[in-house]
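Running this now, will post back.
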Amino acid sequence: MIPDDQLTPELRKALDAVAQNPGDPRAHFDLSLAFWDAGLETAALDEYRQVFNLAEPGNLDFFVSAAKTYKTHEAWHLAAGMYLRAMPIYVKEGGSIPE
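Update: finished.
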């Protein structure tokens, strides 16, 4: 249960989106980010795991976009995980891993 004083408008919106689309990795990503921004790091990590479970393994654009967004929110370890998920996709596609 989330304390009322930590239930931001962004968090409410993201919770609603996940309730409406529980299989959508983007909804879980948005909820993870909302939890992170609300200072609920454990909940953010739980949703981050859901993103990994639901996202299509070869969706390079999704993982890079998620990594960049986490990075802008200074969620460094979450960004790193998304970049790590993207690395084998770059290699598989015959490219090199960008800096």
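Residues 76-92 form the longest helix (17 residues). More later if anyone needs it.
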